[in-house]
Amino acid sequence: MKKAIIKSEGNNYSAIEIGKFNDINQYSFPHPKLEKSIPGKLFISELIKSTGTEISIQALPANTDIPFLHSHKEHEEIYIFLKGSGQFQVDNNLFDIQEGSIVRIAPNGKRTWRNKSDDSMLLIVIQAKAESLQNYYVSDGFKANGQILR
């Protein structure tokens, strides 16, 4: 099983290297509730010491599906599809997805997805506590003093 490499860390940041997205299948997540490992899935938030979001990257093999529905207690999820095509189900709604599709689901939404193509599907999932976003766009940012290193 492949492991992420810590590239750099400081008081205000963490940086890791996971390799090429096409090689995500070299990672495996030991799922504590399913009591089995999920190949091609990597949770990165703990690795980068995130305090506000959970982020995972997943490769779903050709013509396979997630064989269960799931919901969350507090987190909404945002699914960003980088490669592949298939279908996504939220509650009793089923719709097509493809590279470039982005889906947000509230915590109570029952969700699952499937890869209906002959190629691997690649996606990023971002979880954050629902109703926690205080500002949109750039309203939280401000110009900081300091030197830009070259």
Describe what is shown at a glance.
By secondary structure, the protein is mainly β. The protein is 0% helix and 45% strand.
Overall description:
- It is globular and about 50 Å long.
- The strands form 4 sheets. Strands 5-6-12-7-10 form a 5-stranded antiparallel beta sheet, with no helix packed on it. A 3-stranded antiparallel beta sheet has the order 9-8-11, with no helix packed on it.
- The chain has one domain: Sandwich (Jelly Rolls), CATH 2.60.120.10.
- The relative contact order is 0.19.
- Helix content is 0%, strand content 45%.
- It contains no helices and 12 strands.
- Strand 8 and strand 9 form a beta hairpin.
- The chain has 150 residues and is mostly beta strands.
Write the layout of secondary structure elements.
Layout (H helix, E strand, L loop, with lengths): L4 E6 L2 E5 L10 E4 L4 E4 L1 E3 L10 E7 L14 E9 L1 E6 L2 E6 L3 E4 L5 E5 L5 E9 L21
Kindly list the characteristics that best describe this protein:
Jelly Rolls; 0% helix; mainly beta; 150 residues; five-stranded antiparallel beta sheet; globular; three-stranded antiparallel beta sheet
CATH class: Mainly Beta
User: Per DSSP, what share of the residues sits in E-state strands of 2 or more residues?
Assistant: over 45%
Specify the number of helices.
Answer: 0
Which CATH architecture is right? Sandwich
State the helical fraction.
under 10%
Strand order of the largest sheet: 5-6-12-7-10
Biggest sheet: strands, sense, closure?
5 strands, antiparallel
How many DSSP E strands? 12
> What gyration radius follows from the Cα positions, in whole Å?
17 Å
Sequence stretches where pLDDT stays below 50 over 5 or more residues: none
Order of helices and strands: EEEEEEEEEEEE
The average pLDDT value, as a whole number, equals 91
